[in-house]
Write a structure and sequence with these properties.
Elements (H helix, E strand, L loop, with lengths): L10 E7 L2 E6 L5 E3 L13 H12 L4 H8 L3 H21 L7 E10 L31 E9 L4 E5 L7 H8 L8 E4 L6 H7 L2 E4 L14 H6 L1
Parallel strand pairs: 4-7, 7-8
Antiparallel strand pairs: 1-2, 2-3, 4-5, 5-6
């Protein structure tokens, strides 16, 4: 195996550490384990537990469910969950998602949440009780906008924007480098999406327009999957 520090293949076995095989790189002189540079680095749990825990994360299992399942504390599950999420973020930065073919773009809005923290003054509201609704009707500054996009074969991207409907500039910052040319973009009619067609070389179709309804419709389930 290659050295995780210098990628050299001049590696030899170098004893054991806590029952795990240790290696020594003859190029950079550093020692390491199989888990060095991975999610399981410095972890006392086996690879099988991590694999099962990652699966729980991807299917949306709660922290308490995983903690009880594997027999560790809520805080341990919290720390492991964040290691998984950070690793996923790093993967997306190294290999960005490129949407192509038929791609659906839409935005959804969720109430802002400061659970466990003091509500900042700029939020301009008092703390809400669990399960409470927004004080204002419709989309207001209490809602966070999440722009989502999904390709028909399953590739997806989602990113928070602001506290209002996204502008054309904000949509380009999110999707501009994640959409291939000649992609058919399906939207629900928000005019801001039209600017993507000019700068990305794609075709933007409003599926709510009467003459387009007979050709295609947006699948409502994909948005929930993204969340």
């Amino acid at each position: 195996m290659q050295c995780p520090y210098c990628q050299s293949s001049k590696v030899i076995k170098y004893g054991h550490a806590n029952g795990k095989q240790r290696f020594y790189c003859q190029e950079c002189g550093k020692t390491y384990l199989h888990s060095t540079g991975t999610l399981t680095a410095n972890s006392h749990f086996s690879r099988s537990i991590w694999a099962d825990f990652i699966h729980d994360t991807l299917v949306g299992a709660s922290l308490d469910f995983s903690a009880e399942k594997f027999g560790f504390s809520h805080q341990t599950a919290f720390n492991m969950r964040h290691k998984v999420l950070m690793a996923l973020r790093d993967m997306l930065e190294k290999e960005p998602v490129l949407l192509s073919g038929i791609t659906e773009l839409d935005e959804t809005f969720v109430l802002d949440c400061y659970k466990g923290k003091t509500v900042p003054t700029e939020a301009n509201r008092t703390a809400r009780k669990h399960g409470a609704t927004a004080a204002k009707r419709g989309i207001s500054n209490e809602y966070i906008a999440i722009c989502t996009g999904i390709q028909r074969d399953g590739k997806a991207i989602a990113e928070t924007v602001n506290r209002a409907k996204p502008s054309g500039k904000e949509l380009y910052e999110i999707f501009g480098t994640h959409i291939c040319e000649e992609t058919l973009i399906l939207t629900d009619g928000l005019r801001s999406y039209n600017s993507l067609g000019a700068v990305t070389g794609c075709t933007v179709m409003d599926v709510d327009h009467e003459e387009n309804k007979k050709h295609t419709t947006i699948n409502a389930e994909w948005q929930q999957w993204c969340l």
